[in-house]
Amino acid sequence: MSKEPVTEEEMLKSVIKEYKEHFPVIFLKACECMEVVFGIDVRKVDLVSRCYVLDKTLDLTYDGRLSDDQGMPKTGLLILILGIIFMEGNCAPEEKIWEVLNKIGVYDTRTDFIYGEPRKFITRDLVQEKYLEYRQVPNTYPPCYEFLWGPRAHAETSKMKVLKFFSKVAGYDATSFSSLYKEALRDEEEKAQAHVATTDG
Asked: Which first-to-last residue range defines the signal peptide (predicted)?
């Protein structure tokens, strides 16, 4: 992710031009879309010159691109899948994942402009990167599969961060989802205790 700052003046010159008076609304909507679709957070770094940088949402280090310059970030799809898994009780049937993805226009059998081959990205790339676990449900014929958070997802983000992200997108406070919020709090406490144990030991 490029940390090179961009100023409001540069955005007005090169992107918005004749709609300068609508800049605040356009900028807000663009930031929301970048966060949800690409998993990119637009952060203000200088109040005086109004400079912004692009940052990865939820501290995830992998963005699904082939290199720094090729392709589009796919972190938004990963965040969505992590959220579905959490909301489904930490283990989501593959059918549920595709049901939700179909609602946003991402299909198992169709190449996507942003995500490429979604099935390959989800069941191979994200599994190889250890963000997801993809396993067969025992005693199912024909075989059924399910997704869980992988070790890298647990290490880089938390249930609370994912819940806060979803709450923000939905326009609610995270505490509105009381059972998920309580579970996310327990997860935060366990991570804090584990961190203390490793630093003390």
From this structure: none
